[in-house]
């Protein structure tokens, strides 16, 4: 509000040109007194000039008004004006002159409206400010997501839909997480080959050489499988994928793998295997239709269990590594989503899966590399001097188990955040049922590579390893028709053939390598 008033002490009488004196206007001189201005009309002898000026210093004005009032008693009109000015300028000061009731009421009403208006304007201003902040924030968020992520857009959606297209009657549509990984790439290819719709998702992290993951992606692309580059923790991306494609199944293989690496980077296990799993389950339970979930647990959940062979009914509450603990947590977490939201869940406990396109961090892979490069390998031995043993399982057998799990999974039973009835919840061992010691594994590799390994045999460090694994696969055999057929000798031969070809040893070694890969 702008107040216009001419302080009395500074008003010059129009008849006393240039002379500074005080003049008290009578009632007839007060032509306008309003909430926003006071205008004083000069006496009739004057030129009827109007005086009006902005009030710059209300305190000074009040002081002067009071002082003048003391020196020369004001006329009634003058007093009234003083009161009105005081009332305008210091409306809430207690003990001041009271003005007429009707005036007071209307002024209070006016003031009330004025303050309500002001408040309203301020509220609007604050809301507008907040809205601009939010839209700016969302703009920055969206832009940075589009700049940093390689997903989104019409072309991207077309690729997703083409990849998800089913090419056989009764075919399923599967979102494969970790599709550029070892097991993920094999499962994706198997599904695609039989005509299912497959969309891959992988974050291509640098846990091991990402160029191998890119090569797997290229292999999948050549078979019409599109792999989205993104993280399972990205809820926006997951929601977009489920909006774009009504997936019937999710094959969740994205994880932080490796037992011993958990000592170095524990957070990555929580990020991928716990938070990532929850993000995926959240997106899945909200999807319409809800997909059935098949996911990778691990033989490591048996931990310190010493009853053999490991059966699904054995204790799994004594994990030996953080990796194992996060996989065990995954089994509990998936149970919650099954129980509350009706997600159909199948957990598969993989037993040291190996084969072509495998993981460079695993023993059979790194041993092969070192043996070929003439570098020593470290072979762990138990504290009691016994050899360590694993139920090494060939990739093709595991893929058959995964596909069978997808095919036998019942539909989820929830929608809109609630389940209609209890959904299926299953856990199976996918092992080979014939453990082989680590020294025996090394001997097979030496034979296939025709190179002797330089072995350093050391005691197993206490970093999460367990001395042996051995799967009981009775349940998987009965309910999935799972029947592993590849022994370690045959499986490693296939692996070595792939390794030599992929890393160019076939070309470099000429005839000798042809013999090796035959
Ligand atoms: O079944 C699983 O759930 C897990 O299987 C796999 O773990 P592991 O069985 O530990 O396989 P892997 O590292 O190949 O070691 C094999 C053997 O070689 C020994 N080993 C290892 C390294 C070394 O330098 N020397 C050595 O003797 C080592 O002591 C061990 O006895 C997956 O990596 C894991 O992600 C998970 O899927």
From TrEMBL:
Is the keyword NAD assigned to this protein? yes
- EC number(s) recorded for this UniProt protein: 5.1.3.6
- Location of this chain's protein in the cell: Golgi apparatus, Golgi stack membrane
Q: Which GO terms describe its cellular component?
A: Golgi cisterna membrane
What is its membrane topology? Multi-pass membrane protein
Looking at the record's lineage, which domain of life comes first?
A: Eukaryota
Which keywords does UniProt give here? Isomerase, Membrane, NAD, Transmembrane, Transmembrane helix
Enumerate the spans annotated as NAD-dependent epimerase/dehydratase domain.
Answer: 174-412
Q: Which InterPro entries match?
A: Epimerase_deHydtase (IPR001509), NAD(P)-bd_dom_sf (IPR036291)
Q: Which reaction does it catalyse?
A: UDP-alpha-D-glucuronate = UDP-alpha-D-galacturonate
Keyword check for NAD? yes
Chain segments annotated as transmembrane: 116-136
Q: What class of enzyme is it?
A: isomerase
Instruction: Give GO terms: molecular function aspect only.
Output: UDP-glucuronate 4-epimerase activity
The record's family statement is: Belongs to the NAD(P)-dependent epimerase/dehydratase family.
Protein name per UniProt: UDP-glucuronate 4-epimerase
